[in-house]
Amino acid sequence: MANAISNDTQAAPLVTPSPTSGRIPRRQLASAAVGNLIEWFDWNAYAFLSIYFATQFFPKDASPLVALMGTFGILAVGFLVRPLSSLILGKVSDLVGRRFTLLITVYGMGIGSLMIAVAPTYEQVGVLAPVLLLLARIIHGICIGGEYGAMSAFAMEIAPQGKRGQIGGMLNAVAVLGQIFVVVLVLGAAWILPAADMVEYGWRIIFGIGAALSLAGIWIRRGMKETAADHSSGDKPGLFTAFAKHPRQAVQVVGLTLGFTAMVYVWGSYMPAYAKTYGGLDPKYGMIATLVSLVAALVGALIAGPLSDKYGRRKTMLAAGVILAGGTIPAMGLISDSLATLMILQSAAMLVLALLQASSMAAYCELFPRKVRASGIGFPYSLTVALIGGTAPMVGTQFAAWNIGGAFPWYVAGLMAVSVFFYATMKETAFKPLPE
């Protein structure tokens, strides 16, 4: 594998300048998008399938709630390795190239999913079972941590002026398509297989499909052209150069991400478990609501991208932030065992979140120059996602165990309110070229 990646790097085309024409380089965009779809398929499969395989990796005498908490805890550990990997792989992306980094990440995602697909259960190997699950999620976390900064930098560097938001929206739509694919597979398996079979082996099939899809991501990304800065002559930035020279921008990435990531993981992937825990809704119906909401998110991302280019990052992010901060508490208070209610609320939330998702990728990239862009974005973004987004399902489940579930919507809305402050005070960057 190492030789294959090394050979790919040596064969990579030379650095290409940012396009000035209005035409989107579709082949380059496809390289980022399809790999992104596959990686987010693998990443989200864990969250969507956790309610089925949780009891397989913990003692049989543990309650389902305890097993689910343990599974979400391992999910959170996967997030916690993301900041370090984003720092290191972000620097690799800035120095060696976006293409090399994005090949590493898609290789790793396939390996992690294959490990989960064939992992033994607690009954078979005891404590080794959750250890192997943890190791697979650490590999996923490392790859996703390096993916976001490198992929965002690459995508915005190939984007023509005035279309960065549109490309950001398209990439988010493709990522949502990966999630939709997961949900369709989970729903199909849940309806076809008896519940006992879904718990026993149904979830393994889906992780196996994710591992197989990674091969397609590798093949497509081998054709990427390089966009990273050329450091062959001149000083090479160090590991912390981006933060030493651009501390205000790094803090701004944290502030812009804080509430955004909480909302994404609560409304986007935690809702089936939340509706089951707090409303008693059957997980299969929760997945139906999630599927409908993801379709809304896909359509919303395609619409929100051009809106971000037309009206600017500040206005679109501020509008979405205010709606989410003010609407989350009453909306989550309405969730019960009603599929229709959950479907409407979750779809509405995902439509609003599309404004943030389409704008954020471009907004982050517009803060940093090319030579430190991937590392400058990756570390503060991944750190915030790890501490806030990755822990949101575990916090919600723990609040239920403590019988203070009513506090969870306030927790999420409070985080969003902090981000609203950053949206309101950010400078508009949509109408200027990327910093070089």
UniProtKB/TrEMBL annotation:
Residue segments, region Disordered: 1-21
Membrane topology of this protein: Multi-pass membrane protein
Gene Ontology CC terms, in alphabetical order: plasma membrane
GO function terms (MF aspect): symporter activity
Family: Belongs to the major facilitator superfamily. Metabolite:H+ Symporter (MHS) family (TC 2.A.1.6) family.
Subcellular location: Cell membrane
UniProt-listed Pfam families: MFS_1, Sugar_tr
Superkingdom of the organism of origin: Bacteria
NAD in keyword set: no
Regions crossing the membrane: 62-81, 102-122, 128-150, 171-195, 201-220, 253-273, 285-305, 317-336, 342-365, 377-396, 408-426
UniProt KW keywords: Cell membrane, Membrane, Symport, Transmembrane, Transmembrane helix, Transport
Gene3D superfamilies attached to this UniProt entry: MFS general substrate transporter like domains
Residue ranges constituting the Major facilitator superfamily (MFS) profile domain according to the UniProt record: 28-430
Identification of the protein by name: MFS transporter
Amino acid composition bias (Polar residues), ranges on this chain: 1-10
